[in-house]
């Protein structure tokens, strides 16, 4: 029994119409406050239906009307693909966007996330522990916020196979902790206003914040500013932690940190800076005080045999080779950003340039060098 191509085409067209009607019904059911997002989504659905309908027409008339059907398909799809009807970020795209708390939920636009899946303990809605109990699924005995038989701490030790110390950073009051993630046998001591450290919500050592007495200065050791009586940004002075020596640079494409030692001294106007990495790469500068201006913020020292013959920079590479600015052809700069030029002061700056081999051959280029060093 044969079915004509015309009947087949009509059938596929009716299928396409049915798909269009289904898409329209879905569009009409969306909420009014999401109409703009769904309008664009509906356009995309129409494009998809149009594609499948045109594809069916093309297949059913491939032999007789190949050229015409193919042209219609191209026209139909071209009309769909434009910037006006692309689906924007929305609450159904499987992507964390739109300010969502979790994928496709929470935030200012999407429906609230399921409280039983938000990774938080919500006792106000009846949860016994994180995402369990109350209206959520029952808690597992190994994760219920209680110390059960066979455990040596809350949800740890004994038969659980979980060391209590592993819970010291999970943001929950469990294990043998006195407060969240602190105290007890396994975690660091909880912050106090008498432990000689800046911790907890303090803005200085044992001062400031909601729990401790106000600091003796108006400075804040956590705000990224040079204020109060700080020696430099958020360090030194009467209330902030001491400033630590930091020195970093790049040589031959590799980054180095003076993580073995740093030092800076000021004697007779000469500033001596040194940094050694754990790989034993070492950079040193002996900088004479600039004439006329002296040591001050913004001063630059050019290290070469012409401009500053009394100043010198050296580099010792762990791979072998010693290099210096005190060789004809070398060109190196040390720029002082901030300096308090006295013992107990500090110097902050950058350095870069080329040094040449002390043996008369080869060279090395240092770049992106920075230092923040207390002056001893």
Description:
With 376 residues, the protein is of the alpha+beta class. It is 17% helix and 20% strand. Strand 4 and strand 5 (282-287) form a beta hairpin. It starts with a helix and ends with a strand. Strands 1, 2, 3, 4, 5, 6, 7, 8, 9, 10 and 11 form an eleven-stranded antiparallel β-sheet that branches. It is built from three helices and eleven strands. Helix 1 runs antiparallel to helix 2 and helix 2 runs antiparallel to helix 3.
- Judged by helices, strands and strand pairing, the structural class is alpha+beta
Q: Mind summarizing the main beta sheet?
A: 11 strands, antiparallel
Strand content: 15-25%
Count all strands and give the number: 11
What is the straight-line distance between the termini?
Answer: 102 Å
Give the overall average pLDDT. Answer: 84
The level of helicity is 10-25%
The arrangement of helices and strands along the chain is HHHEEEEEEEEEEE
Number of helices: 3
Please tell me what the overall shape is.
Answer: elongated
